[in-house]
Amino acid sequence: MSKKRKQQELEKQNNIQEEEVMTLKKQSLKDLIAPSGIDASNIDHLEIISSVKRYARSFYVSTLPRMATFPLLFRDMYLFGDINTSIYINPIAESRSQNELNKVINELETERLVAQDRGNINRESNLAQKRYEAEQLRDEISAGFNKMYEASIVSTIFSYNLDDLDRLTKMLASEMSKSLVGVKSAWAMQEEAFQSNLPLMNNKMKKTHSFDRRSMATVFPFVTSDVGHPTGIPLGFNKQTGTPILFDNFHSSLNNYNMVIFAKSGAGKSVTMKTLISRSSVLMGIESLALDAEGEYTIVAESLGGINVVLGPNSKTIINVFDIEPEIVKDEITGKEKVVLSVENKVEDVTQALLTMARGSTRSTDVNELTKQIIAESVAEEYAALGITNNPESLYEDTGRELRGRDALYRNKKKMPTIGSWYRRIERKAENDQNEDYRFHYSYLLKVMKQYIREYDGQMAYFDGQSTFELLDGAPFINLDISQLEERFARPLAQQILLSWIWEKYVKKNSEDKLKARKKRVIVDEAWMLLPYPEAVDFLNTMARRARKRNVSLAIISQRFQDFYEKPEAQAVLTSSDTKLFLAQDKSEIEQLKEVFKLSEGEASFLITCTKGEGLLKVGSETAILQIRPTEKEFEFVETNLNKLAQMRRKKVGQ
Predict the structure, then answer these.
(1) Helices 369-385 and 419-432 meet at what angle, rounded to 10?
(2) Amino acid 589: pLDDT
(3) Is 63:181 a contact under the CB 8 Å cutoff?
(4) 3-class DSSP state of 157
(5) Bridge partners, residue 581, by sequence
């Protein structure tokens, strides 16, 4: 093809494109969206002719309920399927609305007097109530607090065959009747109704209803995220919609069962968790265990018939950090359950706890990898000395005879190593080790660990000895109260050791088979205390990642989010928690929350100004503004304000 011929073809194509553009510019919106043709010969539906024939039937709202609730009024209509809905809203002038309401009031009063003369008490009462409401509305409008509107609601359903169109028509009428909304087919007016439902702002259907300002708001299709689950406990109310939020900590839609609660002091953290514990125990049978740093959960344990354990300098309770339990796991090949024992993992856990003890409240830099090696070797030797291996049978004493049936269930378990026996082993090894590098670390351990040894009357000897109680399965709530311990170091240490002990005695006992496993929750209150101690943070992260496998929810409660924000090692706790609840926040921490959890400006402002019991609930990717309202009976054991508790007691005595 010659160059001139190519030039002519190119100019021809450009001219065609320009003509098409000019044609589109000349067309109106109506021309652009109109189908190839519409057959309006039928009185109850339309046939839309295009590349594929479709059928359409239009409706209008004929009756409305006496009371309207957002977002339930037209929700089923908006979400019905292949449907378009248009709402024409026109404000009514105040003078007209006043005249019409006065007319209605006079008519209602006349009918009421007639009913009174006839002795129809029920009708008289209903008419009197309607007159009162009409007078109240009239007074609100005259004072400028309210306004009247006329609204016309038109919908059109689309389908590819008539049978489906008839079926969908009946289904829509049935769904809308549940909320007392009546819909009627625009019989013999299908063309006018269809045109009214086009985006042309031309309402040819004059079927209107009167709304005031509050009821008019219920027709708008703007709703918040639908937070919550089909099953669960009533956690509170969605403040934007007024609907209750059902929360199931173990719902299959969640990636994990963990949750975090952050709030400043006095915002309602403990009240929220106590409400969650009590309701989930009664309604869902979830067992909970709290690591209570402030002594706030004692009354919950008493109210639910649970167990309250106090750990302190003067208590007789002993927690043995060396306790080890077998666990039931699923074989990856056969899928069957088997009992296993991991001494290596337990040696690591005990070593981490003893390292924290050795560093002490000053977090001494004299503790290094060599110190850790000495501790770990001695811990492993303690188990080996008792013949405890990875064989679960090694946990039990050898009776010299085969045990069967009930006798096998009541085998004698070996006494576990203790910090005291480990300390004596360190003493013996120190005497025999002539290596100068090792001698310094032995000497350091013997000095700093003496305070944990009962034999030397150590002030923190409550971890030395055989454990004095067991965590029984089936208890609705177990509270481990460590509030009597010194706050700066003893409590964080107790939190770490108890977490390891809870893992052995409470979490690992749960089966990996979800059909057999109980639903359990472990609450760590005032978790910020753990953050200065690397070993404690490491164990907390590990527990957060592994809890779901055991059907366990780890709940972290803290008032100092900034500590989590500034410690990258603690980020795994946040990323491993699918549920997050933020109650009232301090201004100094709101920027960090915005950055980590991608909060909007409005959400951040709300968290600064919200009142006690209000907060932002994030479940997965959904968010809602939550209002938590314990019942009057629940307040008897969830309230933490001392002044309010005293007031409640005086009120009870007065009754």
Answers:
(1) 110
(2) 84
(3) yes
(4) strand
(5) 261, 617
Whether 147 and 213 have beta carbons less than 8 Å apart is answered as yes
pLDDT tens sequence across 221-249: 765 556 788 888 999 988 877 788 999 98
Distance in angstroms between the alpha carbons of the first and the last residue of the chain: 107
Distance set, CA 520 to CA 47, 594, 618 (Å): 59, 31, 21
Spell out the residues 6+ positions from residue 298 whose beta carbon is closer than 8 angstroms to its own.
292, 308, 479, 481
Q: What angle do CA 364, 366, 370 make, to 5 degrees?
A: 130
CA distances from 279 to 275, 287, 288, 304, 507 (A): 6, 11, 11, 10, 21
Query: Using 50, 70 and 90 to split pLDDT, how confident is the model at 343?
Result: very high
Query: What gap in Å lies between CA 462 and CA 486, rounded to an integer?
Result: 13
pLDDT digits over 531-559, tens only? 888 888 888 888 888 888 889 999 999 98
- Token pair of 10 as six digits: 């190119």
The C-alpha atoms of residue 655 and residue 288 are separated, in whole angstroms, by 34
In whole angstroms, give the CA distance from residue 224 to residue 238.
9
**Cis before 71? omega within 30:** yes
Contact 270, 296 (CB under 8 A): yes
CA distance 249 to 261: 14
For residue 55, is pLDDT > 70? Answer: yes
Instruction: Map tokens 């060599």 to a residue.
Output: 370
List the structure tokens of 597: 């959890």
Pair type for strands 148-159 and 259-262: unpaired
Q: Is the pLDDT of residue 179 over 70?
A: yes
- Write out the H or E segment, with its range, that includes residue 430: helix 419-432
Q: Judge whether residue 26 has pLDDT over 50.
A: no
Rounded Cα–Cα distance for residues 201 and 236 (Å): 41
H or E element: which one contains 215? helix 213-216
Residue 273, CB half-sphere, CA atoms under 13 Å: how many? Answer: 34
Helix 534-546 / helix 490-502 crossing angle, nearest 10 deg? 30
Nearest to 52 by CA among 198, 159, 177: 159
